[in-house]
Every structure is written in C-alpha cells, then in structure tokens.
C-alpha cells in the first residue's frame, strides 16, 4: 500500500471519518473512477418459517487511489458521511481475492462467448503457405 495519496476522500491518508458499521464484501464492479460496487451476503430471518434466507446487500463505495480495488477483490468497507447521492461507504482495505467470484465470472464469460459464436471457426488456414 502506498504511503500517501492525494485522494481527498481517503480514510487512511486524509481526514475522512468513518463511523458505524463495517462490512466485508466482494467488489463486483470497479469500472467507474474511484467508485466500486461492493456486495456481501447477509442472513435475513423469516419468522414465519423460522429460517434464515440469504440476501445480498449491494452498495456503492468510494475506492481511494491508494486502495485501488479491482473486480473480485475482497474488501472491508466502512460507513462514512455521504460522498455523493449514492455513496456513503468507503473501502478501507483489500483483504484478498474472492476466487469463487472470479471463477464464476470466468465461466459466465466463456458461456457468453460460446452463445454468441454463430459460425464455426474457420481459422485453420495453413500458415506455412506464406513462408
Ligand atoms: Zn490514501
């Protein structure tokens, strides 16, 4: 991790105060500059069935330049003051890679490729002719 950064919303290097809850989740989207979508599962109790149901919570979180979390990273997010209309979490640190998530993404991409491939491959032209 870098020692300094110029990110004004960085909880480590600048004065962004975090408070309240913190969660551990997986980054599912990190396309936007300094914003990541983080998801985690929580158990929701349903009294009628006396059972827990798995639900997903998804938030937008500030992704400071010194953290720079990527898709598939496991991160700790902390609640902070609203940074924009939809952002009131900040990524505090990366703790690892969610291999399950990355494997699933990989499979989904492969499935997508095979689905959209309409014509059979015709790239078996002999290369040694040009030699
Ligand atoms: Zn920083």
Structure overview:
With 131 residues, this protein is mainly beta. It has a single domain (18-117), classed as OB fold (Dihydrolipoamide Acetyltransferase, E2P). It is built from 1 helix and 5 strands, in the order βββββα. It has one helix spanning 99-116, and strands at 18-29, 35-46, 51-62, 73-80, 87-97. The protein has a 5-stranded mixed barrel with strand order 1-2-3-5-4. It is flat. The mean pLDDT is 87. The site of zinc ion (ZN) has 7 residues, from loops.
Per CATH, the architecture is Beta Barrel
Number of helices: 1
DSSP helix fraction: 10-25%
- Radius of gyration (CA) equals 21 Å
By CATH, the topology is: OB fold (Dihydrolipoamide Acetyltransferase, E2P)
Write the layout of secondary structure elements.
Elements lengths: L17 E12 L5 E12 L4 E12 L10 E8 L6 E11 L1 H18 L15
The structure holds zinc ion.
Zinc ion binds next to loops.
Short description, anyone?
The protein is mostly beta strands and 131 residues long.
Main traits of this protein?
5-stranded mixed barrel; 5 strands; binds zinc ion; mainly beta; OB fold (Dihydrolipoamide Acetyltransferase, E2P); 14% helix; 131 residues
